[in-house]
Write a structure and sequence with these properties.
The protein is about 65% helix and about 5% strand. The chain has 10 helices and 2 strands. α5 runs antiparallel to α6.
């Protein structure tokens, strides 16, 4: 395979650049299947999550189709649509790692600092997630609100600003497209249960438990989105 090794510290964009160049040179014709994710990761010398971020970016660009249970296929040129997905500041897995570091500490600080009204506001956001799910809607807006309410309960405006920025990325094209391949009521039910553990620890004024609960939630999200393409359906 005509791939060049990529240093581990480099981001998904460099991986996407190589795959895109090979497609445009005709190494992979329209309708052909790319090598499996694990093979691409081995040949490029990077992690599978980094390859997945690159493939999702190429899907957002319209260069490939991700077909769960089948593989990654090159799209016909007339099916390609322009997109600015490649301009995202971070890949989905980079974003989850950043959220793990920052939001777990926000949860711990909230357990120390939250006023009664702020705990109630966190609970209301979680209740809204339940209502949206009962109505058959994806509860992403109330999910975002839950995490912002936790940040607000720290009493630190700078942290609130950072969480808003992270969630702007979270609701961007790359993460949304990755999530689309995994989205299900079961996934959201698991997320709500994990959120309730965070709320319970904050309400109990237990910083260590709140930190651990948020870490567990974001670790589970990372693992869900890392699950093999062929394990979904």
């Amino acid at each position: 395979m005509p791939f060049q090794s990529i240093e581990p510290r480099r981001l998904y964009r460099q991986i996407a650049d190589q795959i895109r160049a090979l497609i445009k040179r005709g190494e992979y014709a329209a309708g052909s299947r790319l090598p499996p994710e694990r093979d691409l990761a081995r040949q490029l010398g990077v992690s599978r999550p980094s390859v997945r971020e690159a493939l999702i970016a190429l899907e957002v660009e319209g260069l490939v189709d991700v077909r769960i249970g089948s593989g990654i296929y090159v799209r016909a040129p007339d099916a390609i649509t322009a997109s600015n997905g490649q301009d995202a500041a971070a890949g989905p897995f980079e974003l989850l790692r950043a959220r793990y570091v920052i939001e777990s500490e926000c949860a711990a600080l909230a357990a120390k600092s939250a006023k009664r009204a702020q705990v109630a506001a966190i609970e209301e956001a979680l209740d809204e997630m339940d209502r949206e799910m009962d109505a058959g809607r994806q509860p992403l807006p109330s999910d975002r609100l839950f995490h912002l309410r936790v940040a607000e309960a720290t009493g630190n405006g700078a942290l609130v600003h950072v969480i808003k920025q992270l969630w702007d990325e979270r609701t961007g094209e790359l993460f949304t497209r990755l999530e689309h391949h995994y989205d299900s009521p079961d996934l959201w039910r698991s997320a709500v249960s994990e959120h309730r553990a965070v709320l319970k620890s904050i309400a109990a004024r237990d910083p260590d438990a709140a930190r651990t609960a948020m870490q567990r939630h974001l670790n589970h999200a990372y693992k869900r989105f890392s699950k093999g393409w062929n394990e979904q359906h």
